[in-house]
Amino acid sequence: MFEMGWAMSVVPGLPKTELVRSGMESGIEYSSRISSSMVGFASTRRTSAEFSFERVGSGVMLVGVRGEIDLFSAPDFRDYVCTRTSPEGQFILDMSKVDFIGTAGLAVLDTVHTRNIRDGRTWAIICGRPVYRLLRAAGQETVYPCFASVDSALGAWHDRTA
Question: For residue 121, is it within any domain?
Answer without folding.
Answer: yes
